[in-house]
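Deliverable D2.4 — example input (structure tokens):
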């Protein structure tokens, strides 16, 4: 079920998106108090915005804008909102997203073509291992997309390995939708309870929230750790509440495919200029086909690379590579720029590490300090030195490392108020 536009030529895709962009600008100018005010403030004539390149004439939209003027982004009356979702805000309060019936249909379409991209077909059964409550858009989106595909869904929710395995053995799902690091807990539980994980119905997992590939698309340490024990196909997917769109891998595993009928994508530098081809920058998007809260040139905070060569699956769309890191999480440590995913990959290489967290703080000189706390049964000077050497070899620097226990780490990592495991804690303060 590949949409025709995704196998069209690159010039055809560009022309299609430019026609959709014209419609969007007219729509927000008529219906969005925020964008109407923004266009007037900057004396922008939307009739002059005709091409993808012309987007550079428009200001970007930030998470702070969305939080400060949340209600002004709404383009429909309140009684047209069918579902409310929220995402954490940079200024403290959550940001609310309203969705109309048409927006929910768009959300279902997005997930249906994304799951189809990963190989899920009618006749499959999918175990949904993420929450649908707490105003969480993703869980609802997954369910709507699978329902649209006429695929069976087992709504187990997050956590509880015993319940997950009980459902797998009873209902025989073919795919799981889960945070990949939780698969390690599933493996551990199976080993402790005599479950033959490679003799079950599960053949693949759609992995959310954490990267499973390095920048060259080879499996990273986390996915290697999973596949060493459990021979299932892992698919990466990247999405956010703000974009209501997913970038999901096909069987080739070379980046999340772009859906040009749903979103326009840019990658920008610190000056909001398009980066050169092959360079990394901040993923910035413009949504297409959203009624309630469309966004224009919204900066995600995620640092990525785009890949534009055609995929052997037949799609000619852009592909988004693994997230290098979040812009706000960038660390300058002893002259080296680091992002948490790179440190995660080093730590995931060690099977003897049960758990870990990364804490960043500001020292008296106003520079970044890194403290990694690990829980392991191997609390020896030799292991600590091996870990330090591995950091030096991979990242050129060695952070401070200290031993702790699972009893200390588990409540921090698996906070009941969080939708995902938390391993990165940023305690930095601004130095004036």
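Example output (designed residues):
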């Amino acid at each position: 079920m590949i949409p025709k536009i995704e196998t069209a030529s690159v010039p055809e895709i560009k022309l299609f998106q430019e026609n959709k962009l014209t419609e969007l600008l007219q729509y927000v100018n008529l219906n969005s108090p925020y964008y109407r005010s923004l266009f007037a403030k900057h004396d922008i004539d939307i009739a002059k915005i005709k091409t993808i390149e012309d987007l550079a004439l428009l200001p970007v939209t930030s998470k702070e804008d969305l939080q400060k003027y949340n209600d002004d982004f709404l383009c429909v009356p309140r009684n047209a909102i069918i579902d409310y979702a929220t995402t954490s805000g940079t200024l403290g309060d959550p940001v609310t997203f309203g969705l109309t019936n048409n927006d929910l249909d768009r959300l279902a379409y997005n997930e249906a073509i994304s799951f189809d991209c990963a190989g899920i077909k009618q006749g499959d059964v999918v175990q949904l291992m993420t929450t649908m409550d707490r105003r969480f858009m993703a869980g609802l989106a997954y369910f709507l997309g699978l329902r649209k595909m006429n695929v069976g869904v087992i709504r187990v929710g997050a956590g509880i390995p015993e319940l997950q395995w009980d459902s797998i053995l009873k209902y025989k799902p073919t795919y799981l939708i889960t945070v990949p690091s939780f698969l390690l807990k599933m493996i551990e539980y199976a080993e402790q309870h005599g479950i033959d994980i490679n003799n079950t119905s599960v053949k693949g997992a759609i992995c959310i929230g954490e990267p499973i590939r390095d920048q060259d698309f080879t499996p990273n340490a986390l996915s290697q750790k999973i596949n060493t024990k459990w021979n299932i196909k892992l698919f990466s997917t990247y999405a956010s509440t703000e974009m209501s769109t997913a970038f999901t891998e096909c069987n080739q595993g070379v980046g999340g495919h772009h859906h040009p009928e749903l979103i326009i994508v840019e990658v920008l530098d610190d000056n909001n200029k398009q980066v050169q081809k092959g360079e990394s920058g901040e993923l910035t998007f413009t949504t297409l086909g959203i009624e309630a809260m469309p966004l224009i040139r919204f900066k995600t905070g995620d640092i990525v690379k785009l890949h534009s060569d055609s995929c052997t699956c037949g799609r000619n769309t852009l592909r988004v590579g693994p997230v290098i890191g979040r812009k706000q999480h960038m660390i300058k440590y002893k002259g080296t720029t680091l992002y948490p995913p790179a440190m995660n990959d080093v730590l995931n290489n060690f099977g003897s590490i049960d758990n870990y967290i990364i804490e960043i703080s500001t020292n008296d000189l106003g520079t970044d300090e890194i403290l990694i706390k690990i829980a392991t049964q191997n609390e020896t000077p030799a292991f600590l030195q091996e870990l330090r050497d591995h950091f030096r070899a991979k990242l050129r620097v060695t952070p401070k490392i200290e031993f702790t226990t699972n009893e200390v780490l588990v409540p921090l990592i698996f906070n009941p108020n969080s939708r995902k495991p938390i391993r990165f804690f940023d305690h930095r303060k601004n130095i004036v």
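The mean pLDDT is 92.
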